[in-house]
Amino acid sequence: MAILQPIHNIAEIFSKKDVKTVILCPGSRSAALTLSMVRHPDIETFSISDERSAGFIGLGMAQLTNKTVSLICTSGTAVYNFAPAVAESFFQEIPLLILTADRPAEWIHQYDGQTIYQREIFGKHVKKSFELPADYSNEDCIWQIERVINEAINLSQTNPKGPVHINIPIREPFYPNENETITFDSNVRIIENCLMDKKLPNQFWNNFKEIWQDAENKLIIVGNRQSSELNETLAKFSDELNIPIVADIISNVNSVDSILADVILASKNEKFRNKLKPDLLITCGKSIISKNLKLFIRNNKPKYHFHIQENGDLIDPFQTLTHKVEVSPEYFFKQLFEDLDFLKFKEGDEDDENIYFELWNQSNLKVKHILHEFLSNSNFCEFKVVRNVLDKLPENSIFHVANSMVVRYSNLIGLGKGKNIEVFANRGTSGIDGSLSSAVGCAIKTDKAVTCLIGDMSFFYDRNAFWNTYLPDNLRVILLNNNGGNIFRIIDGPNKQPEVGEYFETKQNHSAEFFCQENNVKYLKVKDEVNLELSLNLLQEKSTRPIVIEIELDGLQNVEIFNEYKKLFANFS
């Protein structure tokens, strides 16, 4: 048996357990891992030089497919560069498996090259960390390696999904001899993880239905990334039971007419806001973009708040939780609807007027009309550009929205009902550091058109997303360039400080034009609304190269128009 055979067999375990996408970052100590993954016939590999970008490209792939993607790198600071993507995947519950090559323990902190403390390096930002033995000849060690790889893969796919780290000490020699062939043991040990769906007892449902019947104002709020199955069920709550569904754009609840709660709740009219207070609140999903919504619920606490999540942690961003229900949202809402529908059938099929539902609905229709008129009559600005981009997104496509102001603008506007568009965003940690790389990873893994809407600070911070040979021609990047972090002139606090320009907004004068030339990316520059409309038509067309549309905007004018928007809705009722 070859000395590194147990390491080569990791690729065989990957194949048998459906981990078939691997991101490889070049390095010497990880050579055995790299060669075995590349030479395995069932594994698709990508070589990405920048570990930070590589981590987010892998995350974008796993985000789309919901399957475990593996990241592999050499020892030393290369490992730390995975950290932002690992943290994002942890809080967004995306399955990543991180394999880091390391020196054996006796050589740590002995002034040897590329050596840092790698054991449990990601701390609490992984579901679990493992360390493989450095001895590959002992039968017990081989058993341990195979057991750990199985456990790590299973754990990454167990709800809540997330990142798992395996640190792998490897001794020299790293490379096979010149005529040595890497083989894979087809009898490698495979351990399946048999999962059971959690169900709620009848007593829970009896108690819950009493609460439901007694509650006059019922509200459902949906957070980040929901399934198509849940989407269809929630549509029945809205259409047949007249329950308002409030969902951010990143929730992917697009089978109901999106309620622009972020705009409605910008109102300072307390009498109006009090009418929107729920008695029973049901929430599911992860993060919520809208600060207005979070503050509204915190200040208008419902009597009952049920949060539906499979994650064992107690998470309460609204500070109102009364019941944590640890089952899948798909099961919970499907069962609840069936029970309520049967109850409605037994009691007669007459629809009761739902004043609370109508208040949300009518308010939504009003704000949509006012917002449309406001943006239509506004000068050329970010807010208006985002509205036009959302209108032009092709059917059956993917929308990747970056953080900072672009995701806020998108959430204020919404996608509307029935648009078959999947929305992705890095809202686990909400950083600007990997949005472009995540979009690239997503586009590599799909034939659908992928549109990435991104600001200039996020774009240039993550420019190494284009430093690879896999750029897909289905990627369209809409770059809003206002020459700085314009959000700091919009949010309260930094906008009132004399240092805002240099130390918060951090003005820059970069353009993406030459950067696109270097990377063989089609580039267009837009400075006005007429050229914007012409350029956005490219979102509907196929191309032989990725496209970047850079839109030059006046940062101060963006602030003025956004402040006008806030004044417009301050007294809404």
TrEMBL record:
<keyword id="KW-0479">Metal-binding</keyword>
<keyword id="KW-0808">Transferase</keyword>
<dbReference type="Pfam" id="PF02776">
    <property type="entry name" value="TPP_enzyme_N"/>
</dbReference>
<keyword id="KW-0464">Manganese</keyword>
<comment type="subunit">
    <text>Homodimer.</text>
</comment>
<keyword id="KW-0460">Magnesium</keyword>
<keyword id="KW-0474">Menaquinone biosynthesis</keyword>
<feature type="domain" description="Menaquinone biosynthesis protein MenD middle">
    <location>
        <begin position="218"/>
        <end position="398"/>
    </location>
</feature>
<comment type="similarity">
    <text>Belongs to the TPP enzyme family. MenD subfamily.</text>
</comment>
<dbReference type="Pfam" id="PF16582">
    <property type="entry name" value="TPP_enzyme_M_2"/>
</dbReference>
<dbReference type="InterPro" id="IPR004433">
    <property type="entry name" value="MenaQ_synth_MenD"/>
</dbReference>
<protein>
    <recommendedName>
        <fullName>2-succinyl-5-enolpyruvyl-6-hydroxy-3-cyclohexene-1-carboxylate synthase</fullName>
        <ecNumber>2.2.1.9</ecNumber>
    </recommendedName>
</protein>
<dbReference type="InterPro" id="IPR029061">
    <property type="entry name" value="THDP-binding"/>
</dbReference>
<dbReference type="InterPro" id="IPR012001">
    <property type="entry name" value="Thiamin_PyroP_enz_TPP-bd_dom"/>
</dbReference>
<feature type="domain" description="Thiamine pyrophosphate enzyme N-terminal TPP-binding">
    <location>
        <begin position="10"/>
        <end position="114"/>
    </location>
</feature>
<comment type="pathway">
    <text>Quinol/quinone metabolism; menaquinone biosynthesis.</text>
</comment>
<comment type="function">
    <text>Catalyzes the thiamine diphosphate-dependent decarboxylation of 2-oxoglutarate and the subsequent addition of the resulting succinic semialdehyde-thiamine pyrophosphate anion to isochorismate to yield 2-succinyl-5-enolpyruvyl-6-hydroxy-3-cyclohexene-1-carboxylate (SEPHCHC).</text>
</comment>
<comment type="pathway">
    <text>Quinol/quinone metabolism; 1,4-dihydroxy-2-naphthoate biosynthesis; 1,4-dihydroxy-2-naphthoate from chorismate: step 2/7.</text>
</comment>
<dbReference type="GO" id="GO:0070204">
    <property type="term" value="F:2-succinyl-5-enolpyruvyl-6-hydroxy-3-cyclohexene-1-carboxylic-acid synthase activity"/>
</dbReference>
<dbReference type="InterPro" id="IPR032264">
    <property type="entry name" value="MenD_middle"/>
</dbReference>
<keyword id="KW-0786">Thiamine pyrophosphate</keyword>
